[in-house]
Each structure stands twice: as C-alpha cells, then as structure tokens.
Specification:
Strand content of chain B: 15-25%
Structural class of chain A: mainly alpha
Strand order of the largest sheet of chain A: 1-3-2
Radius of gyration of chain A: 24 Å
Order of helices and strands of chain A: HHHHEEEHHHHHHHH
Radius of gyration of chain B: 21 Å
Helix content of chain B: 25-40%
Order of helices and strands of chain B: HEEEEEEEHHHHH
Distance between the termini of chain A: 57 Å
Largest interface: A-B, 53 and 64 residues
Number of helices of chain B: 6
Number of strands of chain B: 7
Distance between the termini of chain B: 37 Å
Structural class of chain B: alpha+beta
Shape of chain B: flat
Number of helices of chain A: 12
Oligomer: heterodimer
C-alpha cells in the first residue's frame, strides 16, 4: 500500500513540477499554479485512496458508521431482546474479551436481537449482536465467549471497513480520472465546489452514510464475509478466548451442538460458511464442561 | 474423541498459543497506559508505566505472563493479553483513552449516538431501532470497567488466571 501511495505522490508531483517548463509568461504561470494545486489535490486523493483501501477510517468516522449500521441491524431483525439480565451477562463476557483484544479502547457494546434464528453480527466501532436463538444455546460462558470472540475479531481486524474502503477507493479513482481528462480550470472548479460542500459536513456525510451503511448492512446481514475471512475470525477469536482464560473449544461446542440440532439450515448461521467446514478449520479442542446443576 | 488423540492436539494448540510471544520476539503495548510489574501477578507493584505503542523485547515466558524489557531500565512482567505482536495505531484518538478501572466511568461508556447517525436514523425512519439502541447503550453503561475486573477476578480469567481462589480461601 505504501508503494501504491508513493506512485500516486510521485505522479502528481511530476505533473506539477513539469508545468513551468512547458508554459512561459505570467498568464501561463497562473495555469501552472492551478495545475500544481491540482497535483497536490491528487496527492490528497491518493492518500484517501490508500486510507480507504486499507480500511483506515478515523475513529470518529468508524463510530458514525458503526452507530448507523447498528441501527440497520436492529431494525432489520425486528428489534432488541430487552432482557436486562442476559444483556448484562453478554456485556460482562464481551467486555472481558474486548479488554485483551487488539482494540481494547473501542466502546464495545453487546446486544441481543429478538429473533429465534441462530446468527451473530458485528458492526464497525465495537457493536456485537447475537440473536436470542444463539444466546439460548450458549449455556456456559465458555460457549458465549467463543461466539463473541469471533465477532470481536471481525471488528478488531476492521473486516467490514476494509470492504467499504475498497469501494470508496474505486469511486475516488474514478472521479480523479474524469477530472484529469477534462479542462483543468473546470476540474479545479469541481474540486473547489466539492471542498465547499465538504466544509458543510452534513450533505457529504449524509451521502456517505446513505451509500455505505446500506452496503455494510447488506454485507453482514445478507451476503456475509467470504469463507477465508470467517475462518480467520474463528482462529483469531479462539486465540482471544484462550488468552482471556476461556476454554479453547467454546465456539466448537456451539457449532457441534448446532450440527446435532439439524434445524432449518437457512436459520443456522446463514451468513457464515457451513458448520462442517468451520469445524474442519478449527483445532479439535475438547468440548468444555456444561453448566453446573444445583 | 479418544484421550490419546487429544494429547498431541492440546500440545499443538499450546505451542501455537505461545509462539506469538516467544523469548527474543518483540511486542507492543496497546493501551494509553500499561504497567510493567515487579512479579507475574495481577496485583504486583508496577516497576514502570508505558505509553501506547511502546516496543518491548520478550525475555521470558511463564504461563500467560511475559517478562519484558524496553528502553533504558524499563523491565518487568506483563500479562500477554496486554500486549500485541503488531504495532498499534498510535494516532487513534480512542486508543489514547486510559482503560484503568478508576478512569472509565459508566458515563463515559454511555456515549449517545453520533449526531450524523441519529440524522441517518431519522431519514430512514428507524425511530424504534434508535430507542432500542439507546436502551442498549444505557444497559451497557451499567457494566463498568470495575465490574469487568471483578468478573475476571471471580472467574480467575485474564490476569487472574492461576491466581489463588480468594472465595475458597476465605471459606477455609
């Protein structure tokens, strides 16, 4: 990514530096300065491309994005399951894991969706949601930790933001290419107009959210991440659970229980790879003991 | 699952778990304020306090504890969950917030929706979801950093793994 950014910077600076040599006189100098300014804009856009493609949104951008995606997740699942005791348990176990995650300073929030389907989701900024159906299968804290740690891994690794970032990068590249091919003054006017609009914040941000929140919500709620990303979250989540002191087989226990349940497969982790494939990728850890009975 | 098959698997997973922080490797602090301790125990005295992203060399591994050294005289023990094998983003504004139990209040955890997100919710007619999220934020805020520490201690997790069981000792 650094190399890519460097190429953009060099290309932009090259264009800017070569101009005074091509044009003589003060009038031409004005154009040259415009173009030099445009070269610097290209550098900035190049930086934006680099930032977007690597998922490097600022914390504030991620918070706004995460809050908005959380609203979509809750709305599409028909609301939260407002059980104070269960929500407290999920926040205790979740925050215990988050403390040792790669991003301990995020504002982590763990919620329960009022649905009997079996699924779990993460939104940028530290939001983790699991359905009531899945929560009811997690009788032990080891099992619950296995589920939550997988979602924490998605957020710690900025999986959703990286995908949005790639889309943003493409749109910025497209705009830049159009600007370069047209009249320079007209292009500069467009850039200045975009800056003025950005200064007002709301319209730009609103547009950004309208486009990207839906994209992230569709990804996590309908399409799901690709299998490789899911296996990586399984691995990282297992490691986080072990570091925190939970049994390594917590997630495995939940997946095995789901396999035995033989319910409607469309309701069992439908946005994740098949249970059999996930189990194949995980170490064959022993199933942790169940809850103690009185 | 036969026990004989479990042994190599368990050994393998133990080796994997410790490989990330082997003696001679480097690790980075991932919080605004992290202490190196005089002993590998959660309540041991701090020898030095380190800022976010401080590079440490791992000298010894003892269970979940690492003996590490940094620049100058900085040396001591640290729980492996408090360091990362990769360098954190030191420009992150959130990462600058101290996580110490006494510094993190329920009020801090109760950050309301970002205004732009609230506007988004209004534009998309997500009023019910906004009410739910406000409820979740309020409920989440009742779980303070001190509560999480108490949970870890009671269940002997995190830094408290392997620590004596205070409740059992008291009962005896």
């Amino acid at each position: 990514m650094k190399a890519f950014r460097m190429i953009l910077v060099l290309a932009a600076l090259g264009a800017a530096v070569s101009l005074p040599a091509q044009f003589g006189g003060l009038n031409k100098l004005g154009e040259a300065l415009d173009k030099a300014k445009k070269g610097l804009d290209a550098v900035k856009e190049g930086q934006q491309v680099a930032k977007g493609a690597s998922g490097q949104f600022s914390d504030e951008e991620e918070q706004v994005m995460g809050d908005s995606v959380a609203l979509e997740v809750i709305a599409r699942f028909g609301g939260l399951w407002r059980d104070a005791e269960a929500t407290r348990r999920v926040n205790l176990v979740g925050n215990a894991l988050a403390r040792y995650s790669e991003r301990p300073a995020l504002e982590w929030r763990f919620g329960l969706l009022d649905s009997d389907s079996v699924n779990a989701f993460s939104a940028p900024g530290g939001y983790v949601f699991i359905t009531r159906g899945l929560y009811e299968l997690a009788a032990t804290d080891d099992a619950l930790a296995g589920i939550l740690a997988h979602e924490i891994a998605h957020i710690s690794n900025r999986h959703a933001l990286k995908i949005v970032g790639r889309g943003e990068a493409l749109s910025i590249i497209g705009r830049h290419a159009t600007a370069r091919s047209g009249d320079l003054r007209e292009a500069q006017a467009k850039v200045d107009q975009a800056r003025a609009e950005a200064a007002q914040v709301s319209p730009e941000l609103a547009k950004f959210l309208d486009v990207n929140v839906g994209k992230v919500a569709d990804l996590i709620l309908s399409k799901g991440f690709d299998a490789k990303t899911e296996y990586s979250a399984d691995r990282d989540g297992r490691e986080l659970a072990v570091t925190t002191g939970f049994a390594p087989g917590g997630l495995r226990a939940v997946l095995v229980a789901l396999q035995a349940k033989k319910g409607d497969p469309r309701k069992l982790f439908p946005t994740h790879p098949s249970l059999a494939n996930r189990l194949k990728q995980l170490p064959n850890d022993p199933v942790p003991p169940g809850p103690e009975k009185d | 699952m036969k026990p004989i098959r479990l042994v190599p698997l368990l050994l393998g997973s133990l080796a994997l778990a410790s490989a990330a922080h082997a003696p001679g490797s480097f690790a980075f602090t991932k919080r605004a304020d992290t202490a190196l301790l005089a002993e590998p125990a959660p309540l041991a005295a701090p020898t030095v306090r380190l800022k976010l992203g401080t590079k440490l060399k791992i000298v010894e591994v003892r269970g979940p504890w690492l003996r590490a050294s940094g620049d100058g005289d900085a040396a001591g023990w640290i729980f492996k969950g408090n360091v990362s094998a990769t360098e954190p983003d030191t420009e992150s504004s959130l990462a600058q917030v101290p996580l110490d139990a006494s510094a993190t209040s329920a009020t801090a955890a109760a950050r309301p929706l970002a205004p732009a997100a609230a506007e988004y919710g209004a534009r998309r007619n997500l009023a019910k979801a906004q009410e739910d999220l406000a409820w979740l934020v309020a409920e989440g805020a009742t779980v303070s950093a001190a509560d999480v520490t108490a949970y870890l201690e009671a269940n002997r997790k995190g830094e408290f793994q392997g620590a004596p069981d205070a409740a059992k000792e008291e009962a005896q």
